[in-house]
Amino acid sequence: MSNAVSASSRVEMSPLPVDGGHVVIRDPASFLAKKAKIASDGPSKLQLLFDWDFTLTHFFLDGRRACSCHKAIEDCDLLSAAYHEKAQALQEYYYAKEVDPSLSVAEKVPLMEAWVRRAHDLLIHHGFRRSLLPLAVKHAHLAVREGCQEVMDLSARAAVPLLVFSAGIADVLEEVCRQQLPRPLPDTVHVVSNRMVFSPVAAASPADAGAVRPSVGAPQRGGRGGLEEPSQAGTEDGVLVGFTEPVFHVFNKRAESVLDTSAYFHQIDYEQRKHAILVGDSLGDLHMSDGLELEEIIKVGLLNDRVEERLDEYSQKFDVVLLGDGDLTYIIGLLRELIFDEGKN
User: Fold this and answer.
1) In the beta sheet, which residues pair with residue 199?
2) Residue 228 to residue 226: CA distance in whole angstroms
C-alpha cells in the first residue's frame, strides 16, 4: 500500500488514525479552501450524502470479502437451493459486466438495471417473507464500520441532515442498523434505496407469490426513509410482492432522480444547504449530488481494495481518498472540525 502512494509525486499523504491506513489529498490548497468556506457558513448550510454498502459497512470481514445488502439475502440459505443457485448466476454474469473496462457507463446502465430487476423478481418468485429479514441479517457476513453510530450522532447533534443513498435494499440496511447499532437512526438520517413491498401472508402463499410482478407505479411521497413504504399496518409477516420505483443501481444514484419523490428533499430546507460532504466507495457515488445546486462539496472516497490499480483515478476525482478498509475516524474528525470547530484534519 505504501508503495502505491509513494509512486505518485502529485499527492500529499498524511497518516490516518487507524493501523495501516492513509489519507491521500491530491490538491491540499483546494481542500483547505473548501473546508474554510463550509466551516465559516456553519452547519445550517450543510448536508451529508453517504453511500451504504462498503462505505458505512466494511469491505472485508474476518479476512474475506463482506457482503452487500443484496448478498445478505442471496447467501442466507433461508430460501430454496434453486433460488440461491440462480442468484449466484446473476451475480457472476452481471458483476463481470459492471467491471468490464471495455464497456462504457452508458452501455452498463441498462445491464445494471436488468440485474437489479431480475434479482428482485427472483426474490418475489421464490416467496421471500418479511419474517426472514432478521434471520438473514443476523447470519450475514456483514458489519458496520466502527464509528458509524458516531456519524449518525453528529448528524443529530448538529441538526445536519444525512442522506444514506444506497443501491442496496432499504429493509436490509435498516435491519442491520437495528441489530448492530446501539441506538435507533435519528430523525436527521434518511434512507433512499430499493424498498420491499409486502402483502399480508393471508393474501398470498409462497407458491402464489411467484405469479406477482413487481410494482411499477410511481412511489408515494412522505414518510421517513425517502420513498414511502406502502401501508402494511397490522402485518407482522408478509410476502414480498414488489419493490418501490425507481430502481436504484450503482450508476443511477443521483439526487436529481428523487428530488420530487424523496421525503428527504421535502422535509429539509435543502435549497438553503449549499454545501455538502459526500462519502462513497465507488466512482458511481460521485454522482449522488447530481441535481443539487451546491456551492462547495467535499468528496471523500474509500478505496477499499485494488489500491495500486485505482489510486490515481480516485485521487483525481475525490478530494480525499482513504486507503484500506479502516474505520470512520478520519470522517468523524472532519465532521467535528467543520460543524463544531473541533480539531484539524
Assistant:
1) 239
2) 6
Residues 271 and 197: their CA atoms lie apart, in Å, by 31
Query: Strand, helix or coil at 303?
Result: strand
pLDDT tens, position by position, 258-276: 877 777 777 767 778 999 9
Q: What is the pLDDT of residue 342?
A: 66
Question: What letter would DSSP give residue 65?
Answer: E
Kindly state the cell numbers that stand for 165: 443513498
Q: What is the pTM of this model?
A: 0.83
Give the chain's domains with CATH numbers: 2-61+144-195+251-340 (3.40.50.1000)
User: What is d(CA 305, CA 101) in angstroms, rounded to the nearest whole number?
Assistant: 17
For residue 184, the tally of other CB atoms under 10 A from its CB is: 11
Nearest residue to 83 (alpha-carbon basis) of 134, 139, 135, 129: 129
Type of residue found at 316: Q
Strands (E), the chain: 12-15, 22-25, 46-50, 60-61, 64-65, 162-169, 189-194, 196-200, 238-243, 275-280, 296-303, 320-323
Q: Which residue has the cell 488514525?
A: 17
